[in-house]
Design goal:
heterodimer; A: 114 residues; four-stranded antiparallel β-sheet; 53% strand; B: 114 residues; mainly beta
């Protein structure tokens, strides 16, 4: 089974802090994704990565950056956290070999910015 | 514009009763369709997927879904729900042309009455 591990289940940070959310997958997947999930809005894509050192903006990249230095790890960075970034953050990975492959998700990080 | 609509924000069903969750999509290319389930405080788990072939697909936990191209729908069904099915359900659409990305519905929260 695919295992996608997010480093924290719950995180509380202060406004203006630089925040790092880490995601690791164990299946050698090429593609990785960061979403945020808010009630009534479903999942919104922040950034995704085709492969190591490659990244593309999703629908809501403002205020975020990402890093993919190793294939198994995809980090989401909040450069200067703000209260409107309080949300559930979900990481996913996917095998690129066929375009119909599903995404596999971690358990999420619930981030609160005070 | 490409979109996925889950018309019901909440659905309440008695334990043992049948269930149908609706999903309609608007998509220019041949779609790949997914249903995911999210238990409270957890990530998303793949229930089933449709790519081609038989339009009735079977998934895990006793769920099935039927792809109806003429109605642009991919409704999820279960003949008899259990209390453990209480969760949020998400429909998602992708395609060969979607650059690995999925378009997500806003989700339907399933409540089970004892």
């Amino acid at each position: 089974d695919v295992k996608v591990t997010q480093s924290s289940r719950y995180l509380v940070k202060r406004t203006g802090e630089k925040v790092f959310l880490e995601c690791v997958q164990d299946m050698d997947h090429e593609n990785m994704f960061w979403y945020r999930q808010d009630p009534g809005l479903g999942l919104r894509l922040i950034y995704f990565s085709y492969d190591v050192k490659m990244k593309e903006k999703g629908d809501i990249p403002e205020g975020y950056s990402v890093s993919r230095e190793k294939k198994e790890r995809f980090s989401l960075i909040l450069e200067s956290a703000s209260t409107n970034q309080t949300s559930m953050y979900l990481c996913a990975s996917r095998y690129q070999g066929a375009s119909n492959q599903p995404q596999h998700f971690g358990d999420g990080t619930r981030l609160s910015i005070l | 514009a490409q979109s996925v609509t889950q018309p019901d924000i909440h659905i309440t069903v008695s334990e043992g009763a049948s269930l149908e969750l609706r999903c309609n999509y608007s998509y220019g290319a041949t779609p790949y369709l997914f249903w995911y389930v999210q238990s409270p405080g957890q990530g998303l788990q793949l229930l089933l997927k449709y790519f081609s072939g038989d339009t009735l697909v079977q998934g895990i936990k006793g769920f099935e879904a039927e792809f109806k191209r003429s109605q642009s729908s991919f409704n999820l069904r279960k003949p008899s729900v259990h209390w453990s099915d209480a969760a949020e359900y998400f429909c998602a659409v992708g395609s060969m042309d979607s650059n690995y990305q999925l378009i997500w519905g806003a989700g339907t929260k399933l409540i089970i009455k004892p």
